């Protein structure tokens, strides 16, 4: 007997993450495993991004700010207390003289990400369209500028290292599954449905009594908390963090993953993150040389980045609505016709 | 006097940013698309200058223009045209992919040639990097060139838009694309014309920027374009004039804030290390007060979804 559709929709993305974890745990060489763990953490970041962008239809360039807040707070607060005053002497005393466990740092990351998103969202969620997009880009610029220069809250322009590496298979997979479950729960809640209604037709939604500002703010805050949490997972995977790692490149990469997968479904977010990450692993390994029938083909370094851009473009050209077409996972996939959109006239 | 000096420099940077803003605004007008790959057009044009460094200056500049226009048209043909009816987010991400592709292609060719230092020298019009002294003011020729080129390019563009048939079509298309098509405006021609003009402006911006920097790297034009994109939207992207003013304003503000704040100080907002934060905060305030743009006509107009 098949599980009911709602459960299928939830289990699809979870199964994908679990399959990736299982595959890499069993078959991948130890040196490559960190790349697969990164893929799983990307799935968490993109699912967190989806909570706001997918449900509201407003493109935000700012969610990586909350990833940055999570990564820096979780990182700074878990550096062992006996080395911290030595490596980061300029920190505020509160940050310098206290250390918390890795598990608590994830909770802290989620909390700070949510608080920051709420504070930023109160004014910004009044905007929509391009103005909202650019305002969130400005938030990202400010966040980066502060982390890069202010060494009372972090390492400033240097890379912060000595962070305990605690994101193993269990932590990455469970963390990603937690984000997926929360994102799905939100999407099915009345708040999520109200926001999706506002995405489809703002005027009709408002006429039906939906407070768009409040619903967007809720999604933005939840997305910020999940992004912060995912940032915590990320920093405990890398063991070090610099401001440039959580800035424009990560913003463009995660937005591209979301759109390539299919912007309006949670399954699309996870599929996009996994597919792009797998291509990335494949291509970056081929830079080191692929062995074919005794020959070794080596590509010049940087080729993989060009390749990944071409693959993204190709997918977008072939499937402009994303790989999943913005639909959730279903076991009846093949039989269900995609929802026809009326063709836009340009 | 130092303030007058700063103001002249700021007008110079504002003029370059205004040129970039026009390029972005023109494409937005007909395609409703924010082109994040515009900075890479500038980068390509700058590489054309670097690779033709031994040629006479005029030939070198011409090569840059040709490269930028060709790249701009190719972008339109392979990415924007097939996606014209797709969701705006799809087009947006397509421009990310193009930007990423070009930036990394530049990086690959650089590693392939195994240059010692990152960056290729550009000597085109290098004599313009010297300063002319008027009283106690030191004005670099490139500032004067930037202001002059900005004014000439904008005047030429105004003539094109107001006095030619294709210009009329471009304006009609950016007001209401559907109606314009019904009245016989050819979509592909108008879009290609706009994209080509945007390419020319990218090359002009590249020439002015590379006189100042005297070299090109894979990230040339990236940060300028990012600021201009922000400025264009803060100014009002729906009209070319307000978009251009927005671009000018942000270039002016960056230069003035950078020059007037002290150059050292770790605490936020006490030094020009925090110039980007000051600019971005101002942009957020401007957008909250006038979401359709600071220089937009009338009240909150039709703001497109990104």
Descriptive terms for the model:
heterodimer; A: 346 residues; mainly alpha; ABC transporter involved in vitamin B12 uptake, BtuC; 2 strands; disordered C terminus; B: 306 residues; two-stranded antiparallel sheet; globular
What does this 3D model show about the protein?
The complex is a heterodimer of chains A (about 350) and B (about 300). Chain A has about 350 residues and is mostly helical. Chain A has one domain (about 10-320): ABC transporter involved in vitamin B12 uptake, BtuC. Helices cover about 65% and strands about 0% of the residues of chain A. Chain A has 14 helices and two strands. Chain A has helices at about 5-25, 35-55, 65-75, 85, 95, 100-125, 130-150, 170-190, 190-200, 200-205, 210-240, 250-260, 265-285, 305-320, and strands spanning about 290, 295. Chain A has a two-stranded antiparallel sheet. In chain A, β1 and β2 (about 295) form a beta hairpin. Chain A is globular. Mean pLDDT of chain A is about 85; it is low at about 340-345. Chain B is mostly helical. Chain B has a single domain (about 1-255), classed as ABC transporter involved in vitamin B12 uptake, BtuC (Orthogonal Bundle), CATH 1.10.3470. Chain B contains eleven helices and four strands; from the N terminus they run ααααβββααααβααα. In chain B, strands 1-4 form a two-stranded antiparallel ribbon. A two-stranded antiparallel sheet of chain B has the order 2-3. Chain B is globular. Mean pLDDT of chain B is about 85; it is low at about 300-305. The interface between A and B is large, with 55 and 55 residues.
Give the structure's gist in a few sentences.
The complex is a heterodimer of chains A (346) and B (306). With 346 residues, chain A is mainly alpha-helical.
